[in-house]
């Protein structure tokens, strides 16, 4: 069987909602049925075959050959299978996904992994603002699973993160881990200003001191934490560039945000 492959064949002027193109919704559908599906495009609908050339027959392996930041909601509600994207994509990648794997060989726009509950997302590029964060009117962000970003991430990474792991090999923008409820965020580049603003619980691991830390974090001194070795093992993934020694050295621990319940921690290597 060959992966079900969607190749973008036209330029887009409006945003296109691809939430209907997941393994569970396409399973047992013929190519003619898939081509006839209608996708929200601005204030109207477009057939799949008006946008993509579609080949293949294995809906459990979906490939998008597309480099367009107007392709939104890819992998929304994913419950299994794999989605691979060759190129950059738009907003809400992996929204509310439960299981499965999404791989992006490019950049993503805002709100990737919003509402994610399980599975894995690998972004071989940069992620936009609000990675794993709560959407407007929601009280919780990402609630499970794992997100790996090999490049940089924008502002508000993990805003109101409830559960799960976010790993950023590059830099993170301002307000990383803001209002964080629980979970783990690891940043191995430079974290921006106001790190952990309003943080309640959870753990942030840094390879270098942040650009700014709110005064409401308490310096608890240096510690050698055995659980970090277990955490280091859980963070490993194919082609991981994170040095394993990072999790065996003593860390500087900061507790906060003391303006809230103050049960979060920021661990700075070195």
Automatic annotation (TrEMBL):
It comes from the Bacteria. GO terms for biological process: methanogenesis. GO terms for molecular function: formylmethanofuran dehydrogenase activity; transition metal ion binding. It comes from Beggiatoa leptomitoformis. This is Formylmethanofuran dehydrogenase subunit C. It holds the Pfam family GXGXG. InterPro entries: Formylmethanofuran_DH_suC, Glu_synth_asu_C, Glu_synth_asu_C_sf. Residues 76-207 form the Glutamate synthase alpha subunit C-terminal domain. NCBIfam families: one_C_dehyd_C. SUPFAM superfamilies: Alpha subunit of glutamate synthase, C-terminal domain.
